[in-house]
Design a protein that fits this description.
Number of domains of chain B: 1
Number of helices of chain B: 15
CATH superfamily of the largest domain in chain A: Thiolase/Chalcone synthase
CATH architecture of chain B: 3-Layer(aba) Sandwich
Structural class of chain A: alpha/beta
Number of domains of chain A: 2
CATH architecture of the largest domain in chain A: 3-Layer(aba) Sandwich
Order of helices and strands of chain A: EEHEEHEHHHHEHEHEHEHEHEHHEEEE
Strand content of chain A: 15-25%
Order of helices and strands of chain B: EEHEHHHEHHHHEHEHEEHEHEHEHHEE
Number of strands of chain A: 15
Number of strands of chain B: 13
CATH class of the largest domain in chain A: Alpha Beta
Largest sheet of chain B: 11 strands, mixed
Oligomer: heterodimer
Chain lengths: ~425, ~400
């Protein structure tokens, strides 16, 4: 009989379904094959013209029916596609899930295509006054719903039959991890025996790209797109904007075993700590990230010597990678030089609101498959960052525990600890 | 029976057209016949309840911090500061560093002038995507993006007030406010948190914030009326207001051990998602009422009704079916504050419990008298479009 409660007496939370979409493809099988062969999904932008733009590459998901329909429809389709895969793998009813929904998704705004079409459907007046007048004469709710922050989760709740008020959240680049954390916590508190946690982001619009460019956050290595994202390299120059989704079905181990579900992994611990230093930069001493890692380890009941592999936040910005190295070397000490640490973002770019969920999905697969995906484009190591980044080629290795980091703009840091086995 | 893990309210930060702080709101709202503060010209044909004059320096000491935000984030950061001050937590490094935070947020303000210029140019250009790149790359202020990001209200609260235990931002109109309070309370009851800052802000004085309602025709037009009297009027029934509401929720034992004043206890918080297209809203509101563990006898209800025709009619019908409930729709006097609506309702409920007195009717033609001492007060937020919730606030 397996132990059903963790070191703090809380229900152990298992993962029984995983779904993922990135620029590498739809579904775990395609993604895993590409990821472990070191293939990049970063490509030239074709969704909109790139005139005047400094960055002309991305990891957009261009192969779904909604890919050219705007942020809200694409984010919904990404979430729905990943969740469908996860719920099917869990063997649960895809229309009657019966647990709460936690959705990490980007903040919504009226798309420019809609702004233009509304504005130009009338000739009277100008600016906001015209838009408001046109808006109130609309007979359909489609455009309205793209501007409501709760609408994507509302549709997903209908689609999957989740229970209660769905929570839509944003902790910037940590959002996907926060969605998982909320699910884990709800199960631990005994509010439910299963939860659907999704991170989805289809918001790579021209305006989003320009905004990140204005903050000097994006790589401008346009010439060879697949080489642009190079975490921990000396010549890294920013992240690559990307889209994707990850979904996990979380269940109490007890409920999962009772119905004979396959246990894909265990969510051992979650930790967070906010940074009060600056809106886009982290505290120079790395103390919030260090505290988030330590909180996750403590929550998991694991010591520093019990983590086998780190799935890095590894954005490929000069700032993040330096800070992540500082915080990991502080927590893990000398051992950090011999711990494998790789960044999925070297291949899929930064999927923003989805990243924490996508990378949790890949972390779980890393343990199940005993294969660590590489950090590609590691041709020019940063001498100040001495890490075993699993350079350029996958590595076969037994991995029993993973730490997955997510550090966000706005100072929201969330770390997840996952394990292959319940004990 | 009180328990050490009860959720109690020890700090309230409020801003609305009526003023700022719990004391000012109580003073005003306790006056029978109070008239709302209205602005009918600036956004005609829409009336709004504008912000009062605010000295941002009082809660956001650094000008540099103020410059990094637009009004929405300033308003939220300011309201959060009021709540922290009220709870005796502001400036206490240890309490701030261990404090959790759940913020209910929409988005911040876009640059209206840039948007208007792009729209104007679009009338004579067919290459609108190129136009967009051309204008946005040259005319957007880099920091404006941060002022727009939903999670950066929480980010600014961390930076300005040093609240860093954890930081989560929930999105989704009134439902985000409900879920924020519900989650914060659940964390405290389970022992995950000892003290949590929870709340939101809404800045309506921006055309995009009005557009967010008006794309579905939700805004009331024509002469202002109280919330319950907008059925059949021109437009959709919602009159918005700028404001913010933050609460400090605390474990009873934690609050008592540091000798803090307790306004009230926060009892059950319940939430739901009616399939409104299928006509489920009335039944869902009735279900939530039955889950809120209402006490016997007369009950004061602080209603977050928005005025939106269908949702407000449904809420009224269900409340009217309970003759013991005397509702007070505060949006009559403050306007609808979206994500801040539920935290605001809980705050007003806590004030009535603390003062041992009910508010007079905000609309004497519809709202019933309440004569007794309100030992428990219900707070509701039925979303203008989706999501519902309520909570019961009780004498401490």
């Amino acid at each position: 009989m397996a132990n059903l409660n963790d070191h703090m007496g809380r229900p152990i939370v298992a993962v029984t379904g995983i779904g993922v979409v990135t620029s590498l493809g739809v579904g775990k099988a395609d993604n895993w094959a590409a990821l472990t062969s070191g293939k990049s999904g970063i490509h030239p932008i074709t969704r909109f013209p790139v005139d005047h733009l400094n960055t002309r590459i991305s990891g957009m998901v261009d192969f779904l029916p909604s890919s050219s329909q705007g942020s809200s429809p694409l984010t919904y389709e990404l979430a729905e596609t990943a969740a469908r895969e996860a719920v099917a793998e869990a063997g649960l009813d895809s229309g009657d899930f019966g647990g709460p929904l936690f959705l990490a998704s980007p903040p919504v705004e009226l798309d420019w295509a809609d702004r233009f079409s509304l504005y130009n459907s009338d000739k009277q007046g100008a600016g906001a006054e015209r838009l408001l007048r046109v808006a109130r004469a609309l007979k359909e709710l489609d455009i309205f719903e793209t501007t409501q922050f709760g609408s994507i989760a509302d549709r997903l709740a209908d689609r999957f039959g989740t229970r209660g008020l769905p929570i839509t959240l944003s902790t910037a680049c940590a959002s996907g991890a926060t969605a998982i954390q909320l699910g884990v916590e709800a199960i631990r508190r005994g509010e439910c025996d299963k939860a659907l946690s999704i991170g989805a982001d289809g918001s790579a619009t021209a305006e989003a790209l320009i905004r990140f460019s204005l903050l000097s956050a994006l790589s401008t290595h346009n010439d060879i797109p697949e080489k642009a994202s190079k975490p921990f390299s000396k010549d890294r120059d920013g992240f690559v904007l990307a889209e994707g989704s990850g979904a996990l079905v979380l269940e109490s181990l007890e409920a999962a075993l009772a119905r004979g579900a396959t246990i894909l992994g265990i969510m051992r611990g979650c930790g967070e700590k906010a940074d009060d230093f600056h809106r886009t930069r982290s505290k120079p001493d790395g103390s919030p990230a260090i505290a988030a890692v330590r909180a996750a380890l403590a929550d998991a009941g694991l010591g520093e010597d019990e983590i086998d592999y780190v799935n890095a936040h590894g954005t490929s910005t000069p700032e993040n990678d330096k800070m992540e190295h500082l915080s990991l070397s502080t927590v893990f000490g000398e051992r950090i030089g011999s711990m494998p640490i790789s960044s999925n973002k070297s291949m899929i770019g930064h999927t923003l609101s989805a990243a924490g969920a996508v990378e949790a999905a890949f972390s779980l697969m890393t343990m199940r498959e005993s294969v660590i995906p590489p950090t590609i484009n590691y041709d020019n190591p940063d001498p100040a960052i001495v890490l075993d980044v699993v350079p350029n080629k996958k590595r076969n290795a037994e991995v029993g525990t993973v730490l997955s980091n997510s550090f966000g703009f706005g100072g929201q840091n969330t770390c997840l600890v996952m394990a292959r086995e319940p004990v | 029976m009180s328990s050490p893990r009860d959720v109690v309210i020890t700090g309230i930060g409020l801003v609305s057209s009526l003023g700022e702080g719990p004391y000012a709101h109580w003073q005003k709202l306790a006056q029978p016949g109070l008239q709302p503060v209205l602005e009918a010209a600036r956004f005609a044909p829409y009336t709004i309840h504008p912000l009062p004059e605010i000295d941002w320096n009082l809660q956001i000491a650094k000008r540099g911090d103020q410059r990094q935000m637009e009004t929405w984030q300033r308003l939220g950061t300011y309201s959060a500061g009021l709540a922290l001050d009220d709870a005796g937590i502001k400036g206490n490094d240890e309490l701030c560093a261990t404090m959790d935070m759940v913020v209910a947020a929409g988005g911040g303000e876009r640059d209206e002038a840039v948007d208007a210029a792009i729209l104007a140019a679009s009338e004579s250009r067919n290459d609108r995507d190129v136009l967009l790149n051309e204008k946005l790359t040259t005319e957007l202020r880099p920091t404006l993006f941060l002022a727009q990001l939903s999670n950066l209200l929480a980010g600014n609260i961390s930076i300005v007030h040093k609240v860093t235990g954890s930081s989560r931002t929930f999105m989704g109109e009134e439902g985000a406010g409900v879920a924020a309070v519900e989650t914060a309370a659940a964390r405290i009851r389970s022992g995950q948190s000892t003290h949590v800052l929870v709340g939101g802000a809404f800045q309506t004085e921006h055309s995009d914030m009005l557009l967010g309602y008006e794309l579905a025709g939700y805004l009331h037009r024509g002469a202002w009326k109280p919330v319950w009297q907008r059925q059949g009027g021109e437009g959709g029934g919602v009159v918005t207001g700028s404001g913010g509401a933050f609460l400090v929720l605390e474990q009873r034992e934690h609050a008592e051990s540091r000798g803090r004043k307790i306004y009230a206890e926060l009892g059950p918080v319940v939430s739901g998602r009616a399939k409104r297209r299928l006509g489920e809203l009335d039944a869902e509101i009735a279900t939530l009422l039955s889950q809120a563990a209402l006490p016997d006898g007369e009950l004061l209800a602080i209603s977050g009704a928005s005025g939106a025709h269908a949702a407000t009619a449904a809420e009224k019908a269900v409340l009217d079916a309970h003759p013991a409930i005397a509702a007070r729709a505060f949006s009559t006097l403050t306007g609808h504050m979206k994500e801040a609506q539920f935290p605001f309702a809980v705050a007003l409920a806590a004030l009535a419990v603390d003062r041992k007195a009910a508010y007079p009717a905000f609309d004497t033609t519809v709202e019933k008298l309440f004569k007794g001492v309100p030992k428990s007060v219900l707070a509701t937020a039925i979303g203008y479009h989706q999501f519902e919730g309520m909570g019961l606030v009780k004498a401490a």
